[in-house]
Amino acid sequence: MATPRIKPRNGNTESREEIVVVVDSIRSIVQSLRISGREAEQRLGVSSAQLYVLQELRDRPALSINELAERTYTHQSSVSMVVARLVENGLVRRSIVRGDARRLSISLTAAGRSVLRRAEGSQTALITALRSMSRSQLRALAGNLNELTGILDSRNGALTKAEIALRA
What we know:
The chain has helices at 16-44, 48-57, 65-72, 76-88, 110-118, 123-131, 135-156, 161-167; strands spanning 5-6, 14-15, 92-97, 100-108. By secondary structure, the chain is mostly helical.
């Protein structure tokens, strides 16, 4: 028996089965991130976004918010807000870079290292999985997800990335 086809308003015809796979996959990713975020919050008192930034700072400080944004695959404004929260909580510090008073180095404090010793990976698993994909798979996924979020944003008046980061 053939998979039923549906014809949406935009005139494209797609398989119901493909939509089910996509929706189930997105739900699974969201659930995984939600669970790891909740566990991090309960056990460590930090959000999963904050934990991910701490993990990226474990081996070396960042010489700027932009460098940290690049390392965490996150928008600069979002990382800036996460770092501000971490500074407030005493988990990271901002220091002037020697020889360039305009630049700040972001590094872990003793309290930040203590949180990391008690932490397990969260978003790290997602990044590891994405890094295991071929470049063409990753490019296609990025394009398709960007298109999907654009459609959803235009229909729902979705939160900006900065607003999402504030909730992190």
